[in-house]
Amino acid sequence: MKTQPSQDRIIIFDTTLRDGEQSPGASLNVDEKLTIARQLARLGVDVIEAGFPFTSTGDFEAVQKIARSVGTEHGPTICGLARARKPDIKRAAEALKPAANARIHTFLATSDIHLEHKLKKTRAEILEIVPEMVAYAKSFVNDVEFSPEDACRSEPEFLYQVLERAIAAGATTVNIPDTVGYTTPSEFGALIRGIKENVPNIDRAIISVHGHNDLGLAVANFLEAVKNGARQLECTINGIGERAGNAALEELVMALYVRRQYYNPFLGRAADSEEPLTNIDSRQIYKTSRLVSNLTGMLVQPNKAIVGANAFAHESGIHQDGVLKNKRTYEIMDAESIGLTENQIVLGKLSGRHAFHTRLKELGFEMADDELNKAFVKFKDLADKKKEITDWDLEAIANNEVHQAPELFRLELVQVSCGDKSRPTATVTVRTPAGEELTDAAIGTGPVDAIYRAINRVVNVPNELIEFSVQSVTAGIDAIGEVTIRLRHEGKVFSGHSANTDIIVASAEAYISALNRLYQALQSNPEKSSEQPTQIGNQVVAKAQR
Ligand code: KIV
Ligand code: ZN
């Protein structure tokens, strides 16, 4: 068992797999969650909130698998979320059993607006339930976190009482969520200071913060909280999460690193101390960001701090000139510090399976034999088209081949005819889950539209395409293009991703990958479906619930 980290460094609690996964369309399957959890462990997060086990069998399984394979003795603590209800807490405890270091995170709202309209409970009732449920969680694990949901809109005196009772009942971490992203930095700092000064037993617990980015203030709020005593930050990769998202891990970590001389004294250190403020290996940041973006289909905006495509690019002549003379004129951190290395050529046409496998392992990809075989075929195919293969190409291949949606429908053929004097026409052959090969063709406004129409004729699941984007992995005319699409079916969003040197093929594959997620959701939810069944390929599936 690990001991509780001391108060003189910042604990990074990653909730990409729980709050992050609540972003519309970001839903991940169990294997994808496991892949992300492994990468979060490499990144060095202290706690992984792996899911909300009571909500679905998929979430339960994901938490259990992550607990088993990532929650090792020296690995991160694995956490499961539970409402302050016995069935939720018990389910979380069951899922977390295989973890060497397990945490149950239970929550109950404390703001009047939530009490009156959502919970229909009085303050007196909340003061009874909280210690009872914390003690119940404590009967399963030692490490219990309690969150008063909507803390920032709760009356401070009442909040202090709730926290005191939670700690008295055994909570080792008390988390202060800005659930609706309403607070400002100075208010949040004052709230944390108030908690430190007014909760009599606060020295027995770590103060944590959680916050949403509705006003774009989440990271600033957290940094002010650190100055006032918060020692755990709940954040997500790329800042994904409910509505406008959560505080972004990469921004917090790099702010604490780049401005360490400013923050050190707030943690009782000398300003010039070089002891890291977090446990994060910042060179893993870029890779983790790309992985999460690829698997969730949540694109990173180019101007996003730290991990956006433009974060280290200098466009203006004056800036370029300055950087060439001395990087520090316009750069406050090195691209290398987040793992954005020179895009070196690493492999070529003559490289064998062993070299390919070795480089992927060096890049942190662990693959089963069948996945490796598939990836190697893709690599050879790419090496035929593109002489020089870089790390970024390898990452695109690995992310694409290994962590895909279940292969229920498979694209067997896509052919397009288009040009300025012809009407874009696509022919596709798709293998259905029942093993039948169906071919159809369609005309569209452009080649991609024609492909989607042709696939729709075969697959026959009504859906609305809400996002289509193509990004180039490397520079050059022979670069791999990554296509990300998001589609909506009955209010639910599903994403698909694919990488190929031919963006027409990537578009078709990305669409099929999103349809596979949609199809899987329809299959796993038939009993909750609405009235009319849907004909998919040659199968009839009940409609998924909104
Ligand atoms: O935003 C929130 O309040 C939450 C809690 C469950 C911590 O996500
Ligand atoms: Zn949240």
Written account of the structure:
The strands form five sheets. The chain has an eight-stranded parallel beta barrel with strand order 1-2-3-4-5-6-7-8, surrounded by seven helices. The chain has a three-stranded antiparallel beta sheet with strand order 11-12-13, covered by helices on one side. The chain has 17 helices and 18 strands. The chain is of the alpha/beta class. Helix 6 (156-168) crosses helix 7, helix 14 crosses helix 15 and helix 16 packs parallel to helix 17 (503-524). 38% of the residues lie in helices and 21% in strands. The longest helix has 22 residues, at 503-524. The model is unreliable at 527-533 and 538-546 (pLDDT under 50). The protein has helices at residues 30-43, 57-69, 86-96, 112-119, 123-138, 156-168, 185-198, 218-227, 249-258, 260-263, 285-296, 317-325, 353-362, 369-385, 391-402, 447-459, 503-524, and strands at 11-14, 47-51, 77-83, 102-109, 143-149, 173-178, 206-211, 232-235, 345-348, 388-390, 410-419, 422-431, 437-443, 464-472, 481-489, 492-500, 533-536, 539-542. It binds 3-methyl-2-oxobutanoic acid (KIV) and zinc ion. Zinc ion is lined by residues 19, 177, 179, 210, 212, 242.
| SSE-based structural type | alpha/beta
Estimate percent helicity: 25-40%
* End-to-end C-alpha gap: 42 Å
Uncertain regions spanning at least 5 consecutive residues: 527-533, 538-546
- Per DSSP E runs of 2 or more residues, the count of β-strands stands at 18
Major β-sheet, in short?
A: 8 strands, parallel, barrel
Bound molecules: 3-methyl-2-oxobutanoic acid, zinc ion
How large is the radius of gyration?
Answer: 25 Å
Strand order of the largest sheet: 1-2-3-4-5-6-7-8
Average residue-wise pLDDT: 89
Shape: globular
Q: What is the count of DSSP helices, taking H or I runs of 4+ residues?
A: 17
Beta-strand level of the residues, as a percent range? 15-25%
